[in-house]
């Protein structure tokens, strides 16, 4: 290690960070790049280095590098070229303190265990890269306390906007508004009733519910269970509202079933439902993720899905077609949701967005048992 360290000292700067218990190597500029007077720089290039090499003041260099007015175009291009040649990278924390902006956004998810949110994150990252911004992701795991803690940290780091799939009706959004007044706020997968100054982004939940119920009724089902979060954790009240509307139109009684939306809870709740009196002939879930729990419950109860019990999921995850039998589900582009939320955080679009949905019919649904 000592011999290696000495060799690295000849090449660059060997730094030991005891707090993080890790080594890091700061490499020198590549061969052919501009060096400071008197030899190689022994530190990352600063804005003063850029200014000196470009023959301007540090203030003018800062204006050019931060896209501010007051710099001629030729001078700006010269400063940018020097910065690129030196390998200059601005300090984002210093910039945030100076300007009040971090060029980053927060994305707070309530259940990162649900794979659809990975698609949303992927789409958000794609849009962020295209716009040269950063998306920071956190998971509240259905905890009000964790949700508030993450919001406080996002605000402390001066993120420029927040997209949140909230726990419950979204009361924590008010905390965000207090900490970062005027910052863009996008509410994801939530009705956010009574909240002002928010933009809503999510699937067309009402259309999704209607497609699922109408499909099952066409197969003759009249007793359809509808999985939903407990009232205190429910964020998407529009799903339940549409269930009541479409059931009234079709002359059937809505049957919402409240459960925590993790695999263990869904499996246990559905097992009790299917093994008790008056068991439903069909189940509509809020996601393909929770549909897996319904499959496990049906197996525990000795039921054959598609024959004894019909199941409809939501999201059309890659696993939906791999289940046995393949899952009938609502299809939607999760990446498009991620791109849509970044567009609204950047304020290039300030309208609500309902992502279009469709129905993919597979063998998990069939005629109601006689």
TrEMBL record:
Domain of life assignment: Bacteria
SMART domains on file: HTH_LACI
Location of the HTH lacI-type domain: 45-99
Xref: InterPro entries: HTH_LacI, LacI/GalR-like_sensor, Lambda_DNA-bd_dom_sf, Peripla_BP_I
Positions in coiled-coil regions: none
Keywords (A to Z) from UniProt: DNA-binding, Repressor, Transcription, Transcription regulation
Pfam families: LacI, Peripla_BP_3
Nuclease among keywords: no
GO MF annotation terms: DNA-binding transcription factor activity; transcription cis-regulatory region binding
Protein name per UniProt: LacI family DNA-binding transcriptional regulator
Organism in which the protein naturally occurs: Phytoactinopolyspora mesophila
């Amino acid at each position: 290690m000592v011999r290696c360290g000495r060799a690295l000292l000849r090449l660059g700067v060997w730094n030991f960070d005891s707090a993080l218990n890790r080594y890091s190597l700061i490499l020198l500029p590549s061969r052919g790049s501009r060096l400071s007077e008197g030899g190689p720089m022994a530190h990352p290039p600063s804005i003063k280095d850029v200014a000196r090499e470009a023959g301007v003041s540090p203030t003018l260099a800062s204006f050019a590098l931060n896209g501010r007015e007051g710099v001629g175009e030729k001078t700006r291009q010269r400063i940018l070229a020097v910065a690129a040649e030196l390998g200059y990278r601005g300090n984002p924390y210093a910039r945030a303190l100076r300007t009040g902006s971090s060029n980053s956004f927060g994305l707070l998810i309530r259940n990162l265990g649900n794979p659809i949110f990975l698609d949303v994150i992927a789409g958000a990252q794609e849009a962020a890269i295209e716009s040269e911004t950063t998306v920071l992701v956190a998971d509240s795991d259905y905890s009000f306390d964790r949700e508030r803690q993450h919001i406080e940290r996002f605000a402390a780091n001066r993120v420029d906007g927040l997209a949140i799939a909230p726990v419950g009706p979204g009361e924590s959004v008010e905390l965000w508004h207090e900490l970062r007044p005027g910052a863009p706020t996008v509410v994801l997968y939530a009705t956010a009733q009574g909240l002002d100054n928010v933009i809503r982004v999510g699937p067309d939940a009402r259309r999704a519910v209607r497609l699922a119920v109408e499909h099952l009724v066409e197969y003759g089902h009249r007793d359809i269970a509808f999985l939903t979060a407990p009232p205190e954790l429910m964020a998407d009240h529009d799903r339940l509202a549409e269930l009541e509307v479409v059931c009234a139109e079709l002359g059937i009684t809505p049957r919402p079933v409240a459960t925590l939306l993790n695999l263990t809870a869904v499996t246990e709740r559905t097992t009790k439902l299917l093994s008790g009196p008056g068991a439903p002939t069909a189940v509509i879930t809020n996601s393909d993720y929770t549909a897996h729990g319904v499959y496990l419950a049906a197996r525990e109860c000795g039921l054959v899905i598609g024959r004894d019990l019909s199941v409809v999921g939501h999201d059309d995850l890659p696993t939906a077609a791999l289940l046995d039998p393949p899952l009938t589900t609502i299809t939607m582009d999760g990446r498009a949701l991620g791109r849509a939320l970044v567009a609204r955080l950047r304020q290039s679009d300030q309208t609500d967005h309902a992502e279009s949905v469709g129905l993919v019919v597979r063998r998990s649904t069939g005629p109601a048992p006689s």
